Amino acid sequence: MPQTPSSRQWKTLDKDLGRIGQLEQATLYVSRPMVGLGVALAFMVIVGLIAAIFTGSGSTSTIIVAAAVLGAYMAINIGANDVANNMGPAVGANALTLGGAIVIAALCESAGALLAGGDVVSTISKGIIDPAGMSDTRIFIWAMMAALTSSALWVNLATWIGAPVSTTHSVVGGVMGAGIAAAGFAAVNWTSMGAIAASWVISPVLGGLIAAGFLAFIKARIIYQEDKIAAARRWVPVLVGIMAGAFAAYLAVKGLKKVITIDLGTALLIGVMAGALVYAIAAPVIRRQSEGMENRNKSLKTLFALPLVISAALLSFAHGANDVANAVGPLAAIVHSVEFGEFAGKVAIPSWVMIVGAFGISFGLVLFGPKLIRMVGSQITKLNPMRAYCVALSAAITVIVASWLGLPVSSTHIAVGAVFGVGFFREWHNDRRRPRTANANANDGKIATEERRRRKLVRRSHFLTIVAAWVITVPAAALLSALIFVLLNAVFA
Q1: For residue 329, which of 106, 121, 30 has the smallest C-alpha distance?
Q2: 290-330 pLDDT, tens per residue?
């Protein structure tokens, strides 16, 4: 049937509308990253206005406003980079959706920062720089401004390339670099710096070993048992009790400084009591939940899913309480110096400064966190609820062990090291269990190189990128901070 002019007209119109629709979709896809950037800039502007309201007018107000904007920028970067370590394993294990993880993390991070965030912080970042080495208040302010700027820029760069780095180490490097530029190498406490450098190795290795140990236990006592459900009823409540005890002690040591000061022995006692209580509650719950389940690994994943979600939420709460100081510590130091005309190793954090840190971390997580969450959760090695649970449990226990040993550790290094530990343990375990292939060398019984490469369960490219980023974090932040300090001192001298 021949087409009439009217039908050809409508067909042409449909094609044009289709092209317009495709153009709109492409425009939305391209502009999506700009929306996040725009919201982040708007938040920084609002923070600047709030700082101006609280501090009045004048040259001193201008300094505080600039520092507040930089503090908001740092908080956004902490949310974009650091929080992935808490939520990534749960998302990678499919225990949480990405949206659910972002909502839970944002709420728990903010609650941790506002309810349990330390009201007094060491603004010179764990005694790296002696304040007495600064010649005057103005030099100190520029040094803190340079440290804040350099650490934020470095974490931003690390997030862009997809490397989870320690924000604590970034701040330490920034303070060290500015301190050296302001007062020379003698101003640095090199003993403290040596301990921090040692933590680059201790944190991930300890986290990886503990995570691998728990995974080995789960495989031996639950997964490879003939009756998996009966084994799960026996051991999952024990593991949940250990988790509860570890997190209770973790929060007592690291997350409740604002409410009450608790020594390590008391914290461990609290952990034992909490673990016993939760075990008593979890045992009948796990028994009821496991009724009617099939005797296979998929059922085990269901039993571990809820404890994994709870552990991720607790990690976020503790992170918000402990690491908000990385964003607002230098800012609080600047505010104190401007208001009182002096500088000190420790200062109280004003309420509005703490709010900036809490909301900045949440904004950064919502706007820019998904990239690192996906990377930590699924792109390093494949995780399921059991493996991810080992990662979360390792993070809490490693911090307790490090506190007992007096070692400065990074929560980022611990969590990512635990992910690597789980992956490398799986490689080793699979090589032991898998039968020899036809390609194996008959003389020495070793698996052929090609076959061994095919069996890799940890992406080596991510491993090398992340380790390299860890190694250069402190020197890179220090160098950048020194350059920024020299520039600020030259411009505003």
Answers
A1: 121
A2: 888 888 888 888 889 888 998 888 888 877 877 777 777 78
Structure tokens at 386: 């059991």
Alpha helix (H) residue ranges in 291-350: 297-340
State the amino acid at position 139 in one-letter form: I
Residue 24 lies in a domain: no
Q: How confident is the model at residue 73 (pLDDT cuts 50, 70, 90)?
A: very high
Q: What is the DSSP string of 313-326?
A: HHHHHHHHHHHHHH
Tokens 């980079």 label which residue? Answer: 81
The count of other CB atoms within 10 Å of the CB of residue 25 is 10
Lookup: tokens for 170: 């970034």
Q: Residue 180 belongs to what domain range?
A: 36-491
Task: Return all residues near 70 (Cβ < 8 A) that are at least 6 apart.
Answer: 145, 148, 149, 152, 331
Instruction: Tell me whether residue 29 is in a domain.
Output: no
User: How crowded is the C-beta side of 270, counted as CA atoms within 13 Å?
Assistant: 16
Split into its structural domains, the chain has a count of 1
| pLDDT tens digit sequence for 435-477 | 544 444 444 445 555 545 555 778 888 888 888 888 899 899 9
Q: What distance in Å separates the CA atoms of residue 74 and residue 150, rounded to the nearest whole number?
A: 9
Cα–Cα distance, 394 to 182 (Å, whole number): 40
13 within a domain of the structure (yes/no): no
Determine the angle formed by the axes of helices 59-81 and 137-161, rounding to 10 degrees.
Answer: 30
Placement of tokens 């593991």 in the chain: 239
Structure tokens at 26: 């492409």
Handedness of CA 358, 363, 366, 368 (dihedral sign): negative
Contact partners, residue 310, CB within 8 Å, separation at least 6: 243
Contacts of 378 (CB under 8 A, 6+ apart): 91, 92
CA distance 11 to 169: 62
Listed in sequence order, the residues at least 6 apart from 225 whose beta carbon sits closer than 8 Å to its beta carbon are 231
Half-sphere exposure of 44 (CA within 13 A, CB side): 18
d(CA 330, CA 125): 8
pTM: 0.82
Residue 167 in this model has a pLDDT that exceeds 70: yes
Residue 25 domain flag: no
Band the pLDDT of 278: cuts 50, 70, 90.
Answer: very high
Classified as helix, coil or strand, 293 is coil
C-alpha to C-alpha distance for 143 and 120, rounded to whole angstroms: 20
Q: Are the beta carbons of 90 and 388 closer than 8 angstroms?
A: yes
Whole-angstrom Cα distance, residue 370 to residue 102?
8
254 vs 417 pLDDT, higher one: 417
Position 219 scores a pLDDT of 92
